[in-house]
Design goal:
CATH topology of the largest domain: Rossmann fold
Distance between the termini: 33 Å
Radius of gyration: 28 Å
Number of helices: 24
Length: 628
């Protein structure tokens, strides 16, 4: 029901043959450019605030441009950047435009290396200067670096101090830019190391340049830089001399997949994107391992290398629940299991009265979990039918048998997203009134005052849409009871590794826990957690304890859910409302290979995550004190 923004999506293409090969086989030298477009468009779900692409042309002559970039902001950024690329070609005669040799020699973006990025901001910073790829220019081709990533660093301050301590002076304070300067410095050192080596071997002039470009090893750069990064990341880069890389964090928090054949190498944030764009099967696609990097050198040689020792697997479960496309074969199954695992709790919530319960889903991203819930409910119903028939087979009359066989799970499309809330309506009451009409209902889909209504969602984070729109609009159908079901557990903590959840006050679960503490005269729990967090902050170090857990510790999940209902409903709601959440056990049973759950459990995989959650809590408490 609530839109979460996720940073970000990446795509890379490396052509392993000359442009004329693709022109002859596929009818266009733009084969690589077109594949990049498809890889980005198929990942549009991962970033709608901006997009950018970079291209490197191999074998350019001195005095000719060899590195190109386009960036744009807004939801139409992908279309805009590729339109801008093609704008360069509009006045080229068809004969020349369709000549791969002419294109290679004269046209921008007619290259062999491509890199694309889709952006969602988690920092609140916006504008073209924050759109990836970032570019660091130099008159040595090998020192040029384009960088983009799906990441969020939790220790930008530390990396900033490290690079300024050696004399660098970054022009911006953002994680991507600081990372660009850090890597750019190490790339400079690597080139200079090779320069000295070539000089001692007697090489001169352009022979040195060519030797450097043949020998440069980006693993040396990454091994010096990556150990300083705390966070979840997939970082991709191109150099002007034709080297490319992609590296994944050692906890496997952010995802990356790649495909290699004798014509092309492609990398993307999601596996089914590669399947569709390249028309290949799951076994043909590999996942970048934890702490591993994929390298392609100027000659087109592909290799992987372990950059950082892999840490405990903490692959992000929110990728499986919400962010990644549900068309992935494994994600589809996992989301269905998430819905199926909720059946016992749902049956309890409706007092096992399936005859008078209607099931639906909001939003569309919850549809697959809804299918799994349906299957689980049907299995339960079939079990009941079998028991009835086997217990009473000698007594059943035809009419009774028909009644048993006709029992079904009642599924309806109860709610429809009707309009998009326009941000230009900022005045409070008007905005809230409009928000209440974001969804519309299917009138007549339930029996008023008789039927329960169960609606499944993939996550409930802030509860804003529930309060402003969903619950009130569903109540217009006059159900006896509304059961909101979340296929994920209670989101209790900020993410810090790439999702725009950063302030404690945003979380409805946190609000509910604080409300319970105040209601029960337990405010000392808040002040004690604040004291411990503050002392830890002043002491420093990396053995960080997440003291925000103390806020939730006195209560069961059910108590917090019940308090959420109080916070999200008003006296105008006539139906009884209940919220049913997935359990952590149910989550891990459904997504066994993606155990990262810090936004639910508070168990951050890195010191930076735990440090930031305590900082957010300290900030929250100090703000609350300042209001009193």
């Amino acid at each position: 029901m609530e839109v979460l923004k996720h940073e970000c999506g990446v795509a890379m293409v490396r052509l392993l043959k000359p442009l004329e090969y693709y022109h002859q086989k596929y009818g266009s030298w733009m084969y690589g450019l077109n594949k990049l477009y498809l890889l980005m468009e198929k990942q549009h779900n991962r970033g709608q605030e901006g997009a950018g692409l970079a291209c490197v042309k191999l074998e350019a002559n001195a005095g000719e441009e060899y590195m190109f970039r386009e960036r744009a902001v807004g939801t139409g950024a992908i279309t805009e950047i590729f339109a801008a690329v093609h704008e360069h070609y509009k006045d080229i005669p068809p004969g020349k435009l369709n000549d791969p040799f002419y294109a290679k020699a004269n046209l921008p973006f007619a290259g062999e290396l491509y890199m694309g990025h889709l952006r969602y901001s988690t920092t609140g910073k916006s504008g073209i200067s924050y759109i990836h790829p970032f570019l660091r220019r130099n008159n040595w081709r090998a020192k040029n670096l384009a960088l983009c990533g799906n990441f969020n660093l939790t220790n930008v301050d530390d990396v900033f101090k490290e690079i300024t301590a050696i004399g660098q002076h970054p022009r911006k304070y953002s994680d991507t830019y600081i990372m660009l300067e850090q890597m750019g410095h190490r790339l400079d050192r690597e080139v200079e190391r090779l320069y000295c080596k070539c000089e001692t071997e007697g090489l001169k002039g352009m022979d040195i340049t060519h030797a450097i470009e043949e020998q440069i090893d980006l693993s040396n750069v990454l091994k010096r830089c990556a150990p300083a990064w705390d966070g979840g990341y997939v970082i991709c880069g191109l150099t002007g001399s034709g080297e490319s890389f992609s590296v994944r964090d050692p906890w496997g928090i952010r995802p990356a997949f790649y495909y290699v054949d004798d014509e092309i190498v492609v990398l993307a944030s999601e596996r089914p994107v590669i399947q569709t764009v390249m028309n290949v099967h799951v076994p043909d696609i590999k996942e970048l391992n934890r702490g591993e990097a994929l390298f392609i050198n100027k000659r087109g040689e592909v290799r992987t290398s372990q950059i950082i020792e892999p840490k405990e697997n903490k692959a992000c479960s929110f990728e499986r629940i919400y962010f990644s496309r549900g068309s992935d074969v494994d994600i589809y199954k996992e989301r269905k299991r998430l819905g199926e695992n909720l059946v016992p709790a749902i049956l309890k919530a409706v007092d096992h009265d399936l005859n008078h319960t209607v099931f639906s889903f909001i939003p569309n991203t919850a549809e697959v979990a809804y299918f799994g819930m349906q299957e689980g409910l049907n299995e339960h119903l079939n079990k009941i039918k079998k028991e009835w028939i086997s217990d009473r087979s000698h007594l059943l009359q035809e009419e009774e048998l028909e009644r048993i066989l006709s029992m079904r799970i009642r599924c309806e499309k109860v709610a429809i997203k009707d309009i998009k809330l326009r941000t230009f309506i900022a005045e409070g009451n008007s905005r809230n009134d409009l928000a209440a009409h974001v969804y519309d209902i299917t009138y007549g889909s339930i029996v008023p005052f008789v039927d329960n209504l169960v609606v499944i969602d993939d996550s409930i984070v802030r509860g804003t849409t529930l309060k402003q729109s969903i619950i009130s609009i569903l109540d217009r159908l006059h159900p006896k009871k509304i059961v909101i079901v979340s296929s994920s557990p209670q989101v209790r903590y900020p993410d810090y590794y790439g999702i725009d959840m950063s302030r404690m006050s945003e979380f409805i679960a946190f609000k509910a826990a604080v409300a319970l503490l105040k209601e029960r005269g337990m405010e000392h729990v808040i002040t004690e957690a604040y004291r411990k967090a503050k002392e830890q902050q002043q002491a420093g170090g990396n053995n960080i304890v997440n003291y925000v857990k103390d806020i939730y510790a006195p209560f069961t999940d059910e108590e917090i859910s019940a308090k959420m209902v109080e916070l999200l409903t008003t006296d105008k709601i006539r139906a009884k409302v209940e919220i049913v959440y997935q359990t952590l056990e149910g989550l891990h049973a459904s997504c066994p290979h993606h155990p990262g759950d810090w936004y639910f459990s508070g168990d951050y995989p890195t010191p930076g995550g735990a440090r930031l959650v305590n900082q957010a809590f300290i900030h929250y408490v100090e703000q609350e004190f300042s209001r009193e």
